[in-house]
Design goal:
The chain is mainly alpha-helical. Helices cover 58% and strands 9% of the residues. The protein has two domains: 1-75, no CATH class; 76-112. Strands 1-2 form a two-stranded antiparallel sheet.
Length: 113
């Protein structure tokens, strides 16, 4: 099992489940199952339903280096991650609302209202 340092993790452009597992000292299956079930807050597991086959499901994993490092040292919790994601979703929704309002204003100006 390769031993990765925190700097190795920070410098990787893509972190696989195998790399995360080696870094945490657990199995790759534990990483993938943990991410799928929102029990391992180190990134995102995305179910690719259109690529599912009869006997297997298709998943993609995006592991964030800083989250992986924080998780290893116990400096992040599921509650913290949920709060961060909730805040980001609120910000994104705010921007989407502003964009919609801007589109309405622009269309009104074009029509001369």
């Amino acid at each position: 099992m390769p031993k990765y340092t925190d700097e190795d993790i920070r410098n990787m452009s893509k972190i696989t489940c195998k790399i995360a597992a080696d870094y945490l000292g657990i199995s790759p299956m534990a990483v993938s199952i943990g991410m799928r079930n929102d029990l391992l807050p180190i990134g995102f597991a995305i179910h690719n339903e259109e690529r599912d086959r009869t006997y297997s499901e298709s998943w993609s994993y995006h592991i964030i280096g800083e989250r992986l490092i924080a998780y290893k040292y116990g400096k992040t919790s599921e509650v913290q991650v949920q709060n961060i994601e909730k805040s980001l979703n609120t910000i994104i929704q705010g921007f989407m609302d502003m964009l919609e309002n801007l589109e309405i204003i622009i269309s009104q100006k074009k029509s001369g209202c």
